[in-house]
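Lecture notes, unit on binding sites. The following record was shown on slide 14. It pairs a sequence with calcium ion.
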Amino acid sequence: MKRYSVLITVSVIALLACKKQINTSTTEDEIATHRKHDEKELQTRVIVNNLNFPWEILWGPDNYIWMTERQGRVSRVNPRTGQVIPVATIAEVASTTNFNGLLGMVLHPNFRYSPFVYVVYNYFNASGAYMEKIVRFRYDGTTLVSPMTIVDGIVGKIGGDFIHNGSRLVIGPDKKLYATTGDADRRFEFPQNPNSLNGKILRVNLDGSIPADNPFRNAVWAIGQRNPQGLVFGDGKLYSSMHGETTNDEINIIERGRNYGWPFVEGFCDLPAERAFCRAHNVEEPIFAWTPTIAPSGLDFYEHGKLGQFENSLLLAVLKDKKFIQLKLNGNGTRIKEVHEFFTNQFGRLRDVAISPSGKVYLCTDNGNNTDMIIEVTEKEHDEMED
Ligand SMILES: [Ca+2]
Ligand SMILES: [Ca+2]
């Protein structure tokens, strides 16, 4: 098992208490540096509090927060006033439980000239099967029109339960669309089968065609996933968060054609049977794992901006453990060197993260009952609203 230099601090806004120091090689001087670094006060502002299971929040080129809610609504949220401007309700969406429905969304990288909105959602097909697909819409300035299916044939449920549907979307610097898919509660059928779209990281061209350099001549980019719900590019690397079963939630760096192990490897390749499987099946280990599980969801990458303490970090929304986690990366982005935790039990379950161009951070909750919030996180001394 790999060892990491990890300093975990638990912070409730400004009250930073050093809770657990894992690596004893971290010197007192270094700890003091980290504490000082973190002592900048954060302030939060609830900008809207009557949402119902928002799943994706992202900063749009119109300087609005674009949002999905699982029941099928796509909206634009004014980050200053909290006004929610409905864009569309996708009637085909079928949200059967608290785990599925309308999930990830991403906007075309050249949205001004190609105003395409990509969403992924669960629905019942003509045969009555519960499925999942990625659909591209065009935004006409008011609503979503001209749906075009980009990827279909992802299983939502076949036997099993209505669980493990992923799904997060992101567009890479290579202008390809990447998506996470869950194993649909069929662990021994799908994740290790490269011909199944479930339990995978998918990669397609922006028109849905298959890139010539995909490893399996289909939409599959990486295999062996259980239920990944976070996906983000940071400095050229593709990072994902994944729910473990009862152990080993993971942060992975996703690479072409690699196997992430599920259901035969959980977390690191540390058990004898896992080591053999890892050697034989091109398994890439996570860069971080949590046992017991915390239920990691939306993931974003903080490059630089006004919250300087977050620079070069992955920012993670956490469901079960009801907190927000900063995972500070090393210089080349291959290791997590510090873990800082914020807002534990303050807002309930956290589903996703968005970052404005100036570096304000936005979180959304996953509590339901039309009580869900989007929360703005800024530094206390900065109160200007230039976004
Ligand atoms: Ca997001
Ligand atoms: Ca393991």
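Take-home: The domain at 42-379 is CATH 2.120.10.30 (Neuraminidase).
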